[in-house]
Amino acid sequence: MAKSASQSSSQPSFFFRYGPEITGLLALVGATLVFELLVRIGVVNRFVIPPPSDVILAFERVVVEEDILGRTGATAFEMIIAAVASVVVGVPIGAALHRSALWRRAMEDWVGAMAAAPIVLAFPLFLVLFGRSPKTIIVMAFFHGLAPIILKTIEGLSGTRKVLINVGRSLNMTSSQLFWKILFPSALPVIFTGIRLSWTFVLITVVGVEYLINLGGLGQLINELAERYDLPGTYAAIFFVILVSVFFFILLERVELWLRPAR
Amino acid sequence: MSAVIEDIRLQPAMVVDDVVKRFGRGDELVTAVDHVSFNVQQGEFVSVIGPSGCGKSTLFNIIGGLLGDYEGSVMIGDERISAPHPAVGMVFQEESTFPWRNVIENVAFPLELQGVPKSERMDRAHHFIDMVGLASFEKNFPSQLSGGMRQRVSIARTLVSQPKILLMDEPFAALDEQTRLLLGDKITQIQQELNQTTLLITHNLTEAVQLSDRIVVMTYRPGKVKRIVDIKLPRPRTSDVVGSDAFGHYVAEIWNDLREEATRGMADSESAAARRGSHG
Amino acid sequence: MAATGEMKAPARRAVAPAIGGAPVTARAVLLVRVVVALAILAVWEGLSRSGLFYGEVIPSLTRIVASLGKLLVDPVFYKNLQVTALETFTSLAIGAALGVVTGIVLGANRFLMRAFEPYVYYLSPTPRIILFPVMIMWFGVGPASKVALGALSAYFAVALSTAAGMRQIDAILIRVGRSFRATGWQMATKIYLPAMRVPILNGIRLGMGTAIITVLLAETKLSNQGLGYMIMQVYTRFDMPGLYAILIVVFAIAGACNALIGKLAREQV
């Protein structure tokens, strides 16, 4: 009885229940239409903001003529190498720093400073060191992604509940058993938070440097379209990159939630 | 169910008359407080005791004026409480000091709201900080104090506005037993010094007997008054009273009433847990 | 009157020693840091002298220090520093002001939060620099486009942090305010604002970090003044010691600003 009651009440309340989300979406659509109108009646210069309809049409052109999928692949390739490398290097460094209280206290602040440092800005330096090749982009993204993983690995390992470690000791576990069976699994959700932050940095760095040095995948596409004064194309490419990034972030978040222990 | 009539020396400081509070609607309607009546005399220390889920906190919020929508009446003089009343000073169960203010600024907070000039409010705050025994910690921030000290800051902050009625919701719930006993001493001492009318909401039996002149025992869901017990332990009192025979008798007597309620409460929460378990 | 049975919490939380580890002294920490720093410098100097790298790529330390000295007495550097500082400050002021307002609106209203916060949240980590072409079209090639891009980057961090800070205010503090019958204005100035000071300052710290980077990157891409422009000039001249010097200075300035606001946020709490 209660079930049927709740069903009958949920049916008409769909709009009520998702009212805020629908409002947000409608506001977005509304803003787009307003821009379309403003451009068409000439209030806004179409060489500053192209009409949204042109941008939507430009999507097809960008996909077909500019090989956006191939470029996405190039960007993804650089990202994957940098992302994997930062995990493979970062987690062991974090674990090593966690083992020694002395080294941890000496180095943790430095790693923190590295996480906050504007590494992207050193791109001219990396250009000199590694040449104008994807190597430069990958190395920079790797360095940018490294610090959060180290920090979160330390945080996760040292956040292991004392009682769990005592359980391990009471069972006479060796220190490597202790690490693999207790410390590491308990730290994994926090480590993945580090990975999420790291890979977000990787994406930002890869796309940003591609744009700045005009090399590689999606970042370069935006730069080229802008230099050709192809306004609708530039906007379309930017929206495409934003959509891809948002999709990537949501994916990372889902995995992080999935790894978090049930409470 | 009507209030037990004490010797009528004075008009009661507060009269709780037939208060009812229900939450939810339709099938989900829950009666949290069910026709509760009692009164508090001037200078008297009254405790309301009951198991978790007896509507104690709801009652606290009604008397404090934070829950304005209820049936019946809570009267102070001839005013019905429906919003926070200047005569009632509340001390909360949770840690409620402002982390960005040091001890003396925390305690002076109510005076600041009233626009009392700075030097006067510092003097008055100092007086009550001294009373709760934190004189040497005035410049410390809450993060530098222990839980018991922070709770004393909250009590001083409430006392500084000189409320007619001090209303406390399990202020010692988060503290360990020894600290609780010692803080109880402090409360008794302050209450006797100021002749402070006090209403304490608690689920701790020994604490209630140690501090009170009268104890209102409540039933588990819906929360009704089961019995009102006079505690005729001598005053001035200290925590030594805990060792006396009379104390033991009172505790045993009230536990007799409470056991049944607590058992019902426990059974309820166990079956609720079982339901959650089978769902998840 | 003694605080019997209660312990004053230690002012600074001691770092727990690792399992079975010896207690760590401040001197040992300092020693490790000095050794690591010296090791890095020694490796650098070694690489520089080894001749493994083409010409100037890894210049000797003495030459970097010399360049650093030259840079710090160069009036051109200070002129460019001023340009970048002004652009960054303006962008932070605009971005933070808009961000705080947005954050309060989203934090106070659940409906608006559900309607609009996802957009702010998911847009915040997207690469900002790719919006630079758009900013150039809107605001021209001068400082305005850098300010706009910087403001945009700062905006997201401040808005999200403010909104979260508003929602995380301990409900008990609001009940305390109500129990003492604080007026609306008193609630705002004495409870909400102080409680949100730390998250807002943290948002501004994060926002400033991204604003600095974004402004500088925009300057490297297209401008004729500012530190970013100076970096590109040094790079085109292939003056490697100069490039290292200017990057060291920029990193130091960014780190100092970050530490300063971080200190403000931690103070008294």
Compact description:
The complex is a heterotrimer of chains A (about 260), B (about 280) and C (about 270). With about 260 residues, chain A is an all-alpha fold.
Number of domains of chain C: 1
Which structural category do the helix and sheet elements of chain A fall into?
mainly alpha
Determine the fraction of residues in helical runs of chain A and give it as a percent range: over 70%
- Quaternary arrangement of the chains shown? heterotrimer
Features:
heterotrimer; B: Rossmann fold; 6-stranded mixed beta sheet; 4-stranded antiparallel beta sheet; 8 helices; 10 strands; globular; C: 269 residues; mainly alpha
Topology:
The complex is a heterotrimer of chains A (263), B (280) and C (269).
Chain A: H1 2-10, H2 14-17, H3 19-40, H4 52-65, H5 68-99, H6 101-116, H7 123-130, H8 134-158, H9 162-170, H10 175-213, H11 218-227, H12 231-259
Chain B: E1 14-23, E2 30-40, E3 45-49, H1 56-64, E4 71-76, E5 79-80, E6 88-91, H2 103-107, H3 109-113, H4 118-131, H5 147-159, E7 165-169, H6 177-194, E8 197-202, H7 205-211, E9 214-218, E10 225-230, H8 245-279
Parallel strand pairs in B: 3-8, 3-9, 6-7, 7-8
Antiparallel strand pairs in B: 1-2, 1-4, 4-5, 9-10
Helix pairs in contact in B: 4-5, 7-8
Chain C: H1 26-50, H2 61-72, H3 75-108, H4 110-123, H5 132-139, H6 143-167, H7 171-179, H8 184-221, H9 227-236, H10 240-266
